[in-house]
């Protein structure tokens, strides 16, 4: 894995960099091949001295993302590492359940994944953030899995069967909806 570690209102010291690489590096054992995987780490310290860390690991069939706040940056790194590990275990369990007759280890190897769209709205409907990403073909079940892994309410994907853009979303009753574009 290659690390892109940035700090906002904090200097990324060699000790801090080494600690992040050590903790996040432990996740490599869950994957067959992590060559070329870029780990994006953003550390911030706010005026109230609270530390925040955001980690995004885009992989071909999976996007791992977690963020944590804590008074201590090292504790925040530990918490975000644990959160990422739980996401990986949850995803592995679902993949194993879906492909019982195949070797899930090979299916779980990283290949590439779509990033989710995030938009922030203000009262005057001003677009303050735009994201671009490529849509990967998948079925609705995989899209729901990706949406849940990212912690989002919706996920845009290309339906592998129809080759059309679809959106899955989480309903207020806890179930899922699917929007098919014409």
Helix content: 25-40%
Instruction: Return Rg in Å.
Output: 18 Å
Main sheet? 4 strands, mixed
Number of helices: 4
User: How far from one another are the termini?
Assistant: 40 Å
Are there runs of 5+ residues with pLDDT below 50, and where?
Answer: 103-107, 109-123
Spatial strand arrangement across the major sheet:
1-2-3-4
**Average pLDDT number:** 81
**How many β strands by DSSP?**
8
Q: Supply the helix-strand structural class.
A: alpha/beta
The percentage of residues in β strands lies in 25-35%
Helix and strand pattern: EHEEEHHEHEEE
Q: What spatial form do the alpha-carbon principal axes imply?
A: globular
List the helices and strands and how they pair.
Elements: E1 2-8, H1 14-25, E2 38-45, E3 51-59, E4 62-70, H2 73-98, H3 104-108, E5 137-138, H4 140-150, E6 154-159, E7 165-170, E8 176-180
Parallel strand pairs: 1-2, 5-6
Antiparallel strand pairs: 2-3, 3-4, 6-7, 7-8
Short description:
By secondary structure, the chain is an alpha/beta fold.
Structural summary, described in words:
The chain has 182 residues and is α/β, with parallel strands linked by helices. The chain is built from four helices and eight strands. The chain has helices at residues 14-25, 73-98, 104-108, 140-150, and strands at residues 2-8, 38-45, 51-59, 62-70, 137-138, 154-159, 165-170, 176-180. The strands form two sheets. A four-stranded mixed beta sheet has the order 1-2-3-4. Strands 5-6-7-8 form a four-stranded mixed beta sheet, covered by helices on one side. Strand 3 and strand 4 form a beta hairpin. Helix 1 packs parallel to helix 2. The longest helix has 26 residues, at 73-98. The radius of gyration is 18 Å and the shape is globular.
């Amino acid at each position: 894995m290659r690390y892109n570690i940035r700090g906002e209102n904090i200097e990324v010291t060699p000790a801090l960099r080494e600690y992040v690489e050590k903790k996040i590096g432990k996740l490599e054992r869950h994957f067959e091949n992590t060559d070329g995987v870029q780990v994006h780490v953003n550390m911030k310290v706010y005026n109230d001295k609270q530390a925040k860390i955001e980690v995004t690991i885009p992989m071909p069939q999976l996007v791992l993302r977690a963020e944590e706040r804590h008074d201590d940056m090292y504790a925040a790194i530990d918490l975000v590492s644990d959160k990422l590990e739980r996401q990986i275990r949850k995803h592995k369990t679902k993949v194993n359940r879906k492909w019982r007759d195949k070797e899930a280890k090979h299916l779980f190897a990283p290949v590439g994944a779509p990033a989710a769209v995030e938009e922030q709205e203000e009262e005057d409907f001003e677009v303050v953030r735009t994201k671009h990403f490529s849509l990967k073909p998948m079925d609705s079940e995989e899209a729901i899995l990706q949406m849940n892994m990212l912690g989002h309410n919706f996920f845009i994907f290309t339906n592998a069967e129809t080759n059309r853009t679809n959106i899955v979303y989480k309903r207020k009753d806890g179930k899922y909806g699917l929007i098919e574009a014409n």
